[in-house]
Amino acid sequence: MYSEKVMDHFTNPRNVGDIEAADGVGQVGNAKCGDIMKIYLKIENGIILDAKFKTFGCGAAVATSSMATELIIGKTIEEAQKITNKAVMEALDGLPTAKVHCSVLAEEAIAAALLDYRKKNGLATEEEEGCNGCCGSCGSHDLHMHHGLDEENEE
Question: What is the set of domains in the chain, with CATH numbers?
């Protein structure tokens, strides 16, 4: 059911915890399954030097959070903004269909933490200033385009 990488990131999650005085913090949740992800970022000169997470949820939620932090550490802000749920799933060698929403939460948590960073540093657009995270409604993050989800399979 789960790949070896998913099991490894679940049983030995990387980057668990928080970052005091984080440069960006993003928290997202899924009301259907109850998963909550919070990602903390340390950013200097446009580079993500550190990323930590705290997740309340299933094993797939922990694994996707862990992998998401691994994928963004060392990346520029611009590179991190381009990381999709598909990239997280591929890095984990896939997820069962019923757990794809966990990778969506990981992407949204990254986006929310980067938005928080932009807001704190006066870099957010006027449209983003009214945004409280990545729900897709402000148009800055088109969920269907990035996630490849259709109405029938969306969770």
Answer: 4-147 (3.90.1010.10)
Give pLDDT tens digits for 97-120.
999 999 999 999 999 999 999 999
Distances (CA, A) of 9 to 54, 106, 133, 137, 146: 13, 14, 25, 31, 23
Active site residues: 33, 102
Average pLDDT over residues 10-21: 97
Per-residue H/E/C for 72-130 = HCCCEHHHHHCCCHHHHHHHCCCCCHHHHHHHHHHHHHHHHHHHHHHHHCCCCCHHHHC
Instruction: Report in angstroms the alpha-carbon separations of 39 from 74, 128, 145, 154.
Output: 15, 19, 23, 23
Identify any residues that bridge with 54 across adjacent strands, giving them in sequence order.
38
